[in-house]
Amino acid sequence: MKKKVGIIACSGEKLLGGTLSRAAARIVVKKLKPHDTIVLCQPLFAAGGLERHGGQQERNFAKEHPTITIEGCEELCSKIAVERYSGPVAATIRVDEIMKAHPEFKPKSREDLGKDGLKLAEIIAEEIAKKVDELDKQR
Amino acid sequence: MSKKKGYVIPCSGIGKVFGSIGRETAYIVVNELAKDKADLECLPLIVKGKKEVIEALKENKIISIDGCPLKCSYNNIMDKVGRVDAQFMTTDIVKENRDLKPEPYIIPIGENTKELSKKLAEKVAEKINELLENKVEVE
Fold first, then answer.
1. Rounded to 5 degrees, what angle do the CA atoms A90, A92, A94 make?
2. In chain B, count of helices (H) and strands (E)?
3. Which residues of chain A does B79 touch, with a Cβ-Cβ cutoff of 8 Å?
4. Domain map (residue ranges) of chain B
5. Do A48 and B23 touch (CB under 8 A)?
6. What is the pTM of this model?
7. Which of chain A's ends, N or C, has fewer CB atoms near its CB within 10 Å?
């Protein structure tokens, strides 16, 4: 049976990139690759008292399945969390780089992406979906 | 007047609407209800242990908002900072307002979800005022 790919968005609440990463992750798991992907929660990787709070489940999944992290900024919080607790990631998508590549789309704000922001989230989601396909071919 | 701020840290949940209520609540607090007294920080950055962020939190009041019993925000802040001054659960505001059933979709969020977020934001803003005026004991 084909292994699902874990999608881990940075989800940073303070940044536009975090909002875009979250929206893109949702588009991938709900629309583009619903049978091939699952969302993992970044903060759960490091939740204090893992046995009590459920983070071990996320860590184990990422140890046994390929993961794609979506990063809203240069801090690479998701990649660092996965590599610290589970192992190497299969791919990393940088939202800030995709934003630079598409200056024609100007998201409204971190609170409300607006029409342009949603379009950009779809472009990011398509990049993630391409990575999922690539990983599938490698397996 | 106190120069301290109240840092509002919502969980990064992206799977269900309860995480969205937390984020929307935080945005209403920092943008409208307590914009001179409150600030926001990325939970993933706290999880990563970014020094400047941890230091800023230690010097100010901290309010966690969580969307599920795993309490990623509360637990991660406790783990990295060692203190949370007030904690809120978005599920509580849903229970208190049975007539406002949150819509299941999260991009964009629905009208009931917005309304619930406003109600929770009022409580959070009130708590920030209390904390900054030292009217409440630290947890």
1. 170
2. 6, 4
3. 46-48
4. 6-132
5. no
6. 0.91
7. N
B53 dihedral zone (left: phi>0; alpha: psi -120 to 50; beta):
alpha
Query: Residue B12: closest CA among chain A residues belongs to which residue?
Result: A11
Q: Which residue of B has its CA nearest to A109?
A: B27
Query: Residue B56: left if φ>0, alpha if ψ -120 to 50, beta else—which one?
Result: alpha
**Does A11 sit within 8 Å of B47, measured CB to CB?**
no
Per-residue confidence (pLDDT) for residue A85, from 0 to 100: 87
Whether residue A77 is predicted with pLDDT greater than 90 in this model: the reply is yes
Instruction: State the pLDDT at residue A53.
Output: 57
Tokens read off for A61: 């999944």
Q: What is the mean pLDDT of each run of 10 residues along chain B (139 residues)?
A: 86 88 97 96 92 97 94 92 97 97 90 98 98 70
ipTM above 0.90, yes or no: no
Q: How far apart are CA B62 and CA B18, in angstroms?
A: 20
| Domain residue ranges of chain A, discontinuous segments joined by + | 5-46+54-138
